[in-house]
């Protein structure tokens, strides 16, 4: 397009008559637009919900702004001057564009092609992702999801805008058993559900033949397989056992939960995991669930997102979709408190 034409209308722009540096009051332009449509101060005041005096004062300011009378009084109203007539077309389009820019953003999942990036804690995969992924992709048929494993650097990725949302798990401390750790400033979260820990063993494991519960010492002496989580090999369970003076025996350390399940299914080793993960995995891998001899602080699963996404309609849809699905899946266990 030629630089001598308006980028909005494509027409040759009107030469300004107002002094350089003059600030344009958009409210005055709206008054001018209504006056051009009504050619009457009385009718314009009624449409604008202003007094006739206020509209007259605005017209005086417009005349000074454009250095033109703009309207000539006649018996039956106002007649626009050539200058005002020349402004009519561009003014209507300009105000329409400004109204569109200031309108609240919307999100239509049925037609959106947006790509969401999510990170999910490994122990939540079996519990949540198979059914949740189906629900999300059905509701967003033209969009897509990139789902990775929750890692220690995910908060940094969110801060940089490289990750939309995370589903993380956090052990509650013994001092604050009802609350997960506080997030850094600039992040929001919502607890989805609370969980506790159990022990997974293969079906036919000798511990299943016991007539009495395991003691703490007997539990610690078992051969345990441990999976790293967020790069950590020590869990709150280990801290609690060491506090009691009975550290457990870690015979095998593996990089993820799936490897731990495979080992347990084919050995005498045992694996401690969140109850929701154990419930989802035990049938698939032919494992049995045993209660722990020691009570641990709760584990919370929660959504985490950066404050920059708080008002984004698409992000709000994603959060609400996840929360709704999890409430339907976990029922009363799904929490609704914001943090």
From TrEMBL:
SUPFAM superfamilies the UniProt entry points to: Periplasmic binding protein-like II, Winged helix' DNA-binding domain
Show the Pfam families listed in the entry: HTH_1, LysR_substrate
- Record keywords: Transcription included? yes
* InterPro entries linked: LysR-type_TF, LysR_HTH_N, LysR_subst-bd, WH-like_DNA-bd_sf, WH_DNA-bd_sf, YidZ_PBP2
Tell me the PROSITE patterns matching this sequence.
Answer: HTH_LYSR
The UniProt GO MF terms for this protein read: DNA binding; DNA-binding transcription factor activity
Chain ranges of the HTH lysR-type domain: 24-81
Keywords linked to the UniProt accession? DNA-binding, Transcription, Transcription regulation
For this chain, the family text in UniProt reads: Belongs to the LysR transcriptional regulatory family.
What name appears for this protein in its UniProt entry? Answer: LysR family transcriptional regulator
